[in-house]
Amino acid sequence: MLRLKGKVAVITGGAGGIGLATAKLFLQEGAKVVIVDIDREVLEKAILAIDHENLSICVADVSKAMDTEKFVETALEVHGKIDIFFANAGIEGTSKPISEYPDDIFDKVIGVNLKGVWLGCKHVIPKMQQGGSVIITSSVAGLKGFSGLGAYVASKHAVVGIMRVAAQENAKRKIRVNTIHPGPVNNNMMRRIEEDMSPSSPDQVMKGFEAAVPLGRYAESSEIAAMALFLASDESKYITGTTHVVDGGMLSS
Ligand code: NAD
């Protein structure tokens, strides 16, 4: 049986590694999907590559209220309702100690990772169906500090707070709200982080991260998508207001 048959899902950061893997999985499971991303070119490539009648796209910047309202309207116009909201768009910023961290990059990271999730909860949840599911992509950096990643760590901790409040505020409508906390994932974001931390030897950075993961490797985007599917489906209908770690054991050590 298809686990998301008849459901409509909106996925932000939908042209990126985790977002696109999740869009594909949700489509396979019978959902209609709107992928939202700031990057028009990558979105257009995605729609051509996936070529599915139940997939649509919307170019929007999640850090802007007007753009958020635009993607809500698009989803409602195209599909008539929203059951699942995957607030997944995120950026990594740079790697520098707090004392040297550039203010403009801090503002950008907070704008996308924190305000983007806030605006999503503010504008999407009121338009969602009763019994819906909101899934927010945090990170292991939302549960633990990582030296040099102050803005990212701050933003990913903060969305746990939003998740806990939104879960309480929306429980009467049976809308569940949860966070996912991936460890390092084998996609473009980690490639950028490795380059930023050590332009001359990104491979060494990768080896260091892998050594910190008891299972000895990065996750694939599809392995994070599998958790999103569980949280989106009725299999998790008694789960709300909590954190879900997918990290190969990283936080256990
Ligand atoms: P990614 O860079 O492949 O995807 C992120 C997507 O978000 C991109 O397509 C990008 O264009 C989009 N985006 C960026 N700013 C946006 C904005 N203002 N509005 C709309 N879209 C925007 O990386 P990913 O790994 O797929 O990241 C997805 C989420 O997972 C992020 O929130 C990230 O912080 C989180 N995460 C990633 C990792 C990892 O190792 N890659 C680990 C833990 C958590």
From TrEMBL:
PROSITE patterns assigned:
ADH_SHORT
Q: Per the record's keyword annotation, is Hydrolase included, yes or no? A: no
Query: What CDD domains does the record tag this protein with?
Result: SDR_c
Q: Please indicate which superkingdom the organism of origin belongs to.
A: Bacteria
What is a GO molecular function of this protein? Answer: oxidoreductase activity
Which Pfam families does this entry report, sorted A to Z?
adh_short_C2
The UniProt keyword set, sorted, is: Oxidoreductase
| Family assignment from sequence similarity | Belongs to the short-chain dehydrogenases/reductases (SDR) family.
Protein name in the entry: NAD(P)-dependent dehydrogenase (Short-subunit alcohol dehydrogenase family)
- Taxonomic placement: Bacteria, Pseudomonadati, Bacteroidota, Flavobacteriia, Flavobacteriales
